[in-house]
Every structure is written in C-alpha cells, then in structure tokens.
Amino acid sequence: MKQREKVANIMTKDVQTVSVNNSLQEANALFNKYNIRHIPVVSGDKLIGILSHTDILRISFGNTFGDGQEGSDEAIFDMLSINQVMKHSPVTVSPDDTLKGAAQILAEKEFHALPVTENDKLVGIITTTDIIKYFLDQY
C-alpha cells in the first residue's frame, strides 16, 4: 500500500453540482439520476456549500406515508431553498492531501464526503466509499 497516496488519485473529478439558484427538487433529481449522496453547491466554480441526500431526507416525508406522498415532498421542497438546507463553508481537502489525512477528517468529523478544492476552485469530491474501495483494492 502506498503510504502517501494523494486524494487526486482517487477523487471523483466529474462532479455534479448545484447553485443556490437551483431548486431542492432539481437537487433531489440529481441525487436520484446519478445515485449520489453529496452535491457541492457552487457559485461559478467557487465552492460555497455542500448538500447531502441526508439533508433532503431530513426535510422530506420519505417513506413515512407510503405511496402518494410525493406531492407533500414537492411542497416542502418549494418552501425551502438550497441555501437554507445546505452546509455552508464545508471542510475541504486539496488534491495533494494524502488519503490518510482525508480519512482522518472523515472519521473525526463524521462526514461522508469532502469537496476537493484548489485555489478556492472545486476540482473534485472524495467520499468514504472512495477511500474504502481504494483500501479494498490494496488487499
């Protein structure tokens, strides 16, 4: 196993993003379409926040009422904005940081994703799943 493996080597570079001008409905559609759990929120190419699928589930009815609840979720999504739900100024890592350092942040802060930035520009995202897959490939 490489002792100093860099975040850049395993991060996702083709990142789905939203802006604060997008709706929560649009963000939810991205979560479903791409089967992802975290979406960085950007202004231009600058990272300003992160939205997780868990954030969406917290404000929705999910499966609470079973079939026919979609209208209820849409009403809630229309009442709130991405800016109100997202985590502002998220912790980030750089492409040159080590996987060990990223893993330590994820473990200590109990996050599941870290946006990767370079000169304040979003260049990728690394998740707990990415790191676990990397370590599994080493054995």
Brief characterization of the structure:
By secondary structure, the chain is of the alpha+beta class. 38% of the residues lie in helices and 20% in strands. It is globular and about 50 Å long.
Please provide a written account of the structure.
- The protein has one domain: CBS-domain (Roll).
- The strands form two sheets. Strands 1-2-3 form a three-stranded antiparallel sheet. The protein has a two-stranded antiparallel sheet with strand order 4-5.
- It contains six helices and five strands.
- The radius of gyration is 16 Å and the shape is globular.
- It is of the alpha+beta class and 139 residues long.
CATH architecture: Roll
Q: Uncertain regions: pLDDT < 50 for 5+ in a row?
A: none
- Assigned CATH superfamily: CBS-domain
Terminal Cα separation, in Å?
Answer: 8 Å
Order of helices and strands: HEEHHHEHEEH
CATH topology grouping? CBS-domain
Keywords:
38% helix; globular; 6 helices; CBS-domain; 5 strands
What's the topology here?
Blueprint: H1 24-34, E1 38-43, E2 46-52, H2 53-59, H3 70-79, H4 82-85, E3 87-88, H5 99-109, E4 113-118, E5 121-127, H6 128-137
Antiparallel strand pairs: 1-2, 2-3, 4-5
